[in-house]
Design a protein that fits this description.
This protein is of the alpha+beta class. The protein folds into 3 domains: 252 residues, PAS domain (Beta-Lactamase, 2-Layer Sandwich), CATH 3.30.450; 104 residues; 49 residues, no CATH class. Helices cover 59% and strands 15% of the residues. It is built from 12 helices and 10 strands. Strand 1 and strand 2 form a beta hairpin.
Amino acid sequence: MSLRLQILVTAFVLAVVPLAVAIVVVGAGFEDEFIARDTGRVEERLRLVLHGIEQQDEHLAGQLDALAAAIAADNRFRLAALADAPDLESYLREYAPRQLDLMDLDMLLIQDPRGVAISSGHFPGAHGELQPKLAALIAGTPDGRALMSVRSPGGSFLALARVRALELAGSTWQLVGGRRLDRQGLESLAGDPDLRVLLAWPGGEHAELATERAITIHEQQLRRAGQIVRTRHLPLIRDDRLTDAWVLITHDRGSQHLLLAEIRRRLGLLLAVVVVLAIPLAVLLAAGVSRPLRQLTARTADLDLDRLDVDFSSDRRDEVGRLSRVLADLTTRLRRGVGDLRAAEHRATLGEVARQVNHDIRNGITPLRNVLRHLGEVAAQKPAELAVVFGERRANLDSGLAYLEELATHYARLSPGRETWPCRLDELGPAVVAQTAVPAGATIRWEDTAGLPAVLADPVSLRRIL
């Protein structure tokens, strides 16, 4: 993988991954916050419903207390209830209906000590019915109130009922009053149209959910469906026995899911835009960062032992600049080393050639020296015989001279031919200076010769001269 691709991938990852993680974290935070607020809202509405039931119960208790006080002060009622007065029987029977309208109650039942209904405000047909356990069941609940199914001319309804004992002439009468409590009433108490209130009780609309097991299973099903569910148990009187009714408040989070989906969609769109913008920016960044390295690589590719004049100078202060300066120092040392190596090779070659030439010349001179020494001895001792001896040794002199001439011709052929070319000193001079070994403490400076004309000469000879 190239450095440019590595920079591209790194820049892309640094731009996209943190944003993607932030989007995931923010999305999860939004969802948790929405769920927490929604759950809190449902619980708050459940408290409002229960508080509304409490307020209705308190208001009902106050109304029954006021009714008990009014009955205790009503002599006609006392006379009709305790004395055998047929003319007051209609007054007694119509007493509960009158008070029902005056007190804005939905249910009112007056029972004598035996539990017989002597006046029914909500259902005239209940007059004379015997319900001896009703008051005791209501009074026996933890809060002194209970739900009960109430008959009326328009059909049965569910009411929140409370009982009030009334003492008349040493006997205890019972006042049973109630307010209608249905799903619409509970929803109005909740005060939130997004919430659904369900009232389950035996014989009611949702009788199949009126057991604890059934309501638990239904609650789990709603939770799995993504709804928020809260339930509360209420006592219910039905068929002269105490049973259970359930208030179930649910909230379908479909709108919330749509909102979260829209938020996630917009965050995803933001991520896509960032990705689209990050790719060209990462490409430009990678190209800009790697461009100096590519340029340095191109200059390094031109570097050769025969071409060490590559310019690595740089004014950058980063790692690329430091690398350029290191390469510049390296080429300087290489030029100095190549110059030293060539000088050493030149000296070694000259030494070898000198030894060979010395050997060959000595081979040619030795016979000549011997002949000349012999001739010198003859000239000194026997001058008369010099001409004869010279004639005898002349062949040796000629062969020695011929050997030296042949040797000179042989070495002349080894010398390369010289060709003259136009040579520019402004190009040749800096190259010679760069390849010349400089002693410590000394510097060689080449003055600008750009204005001089070209010189017609052999480049090798001119380089040697320089």
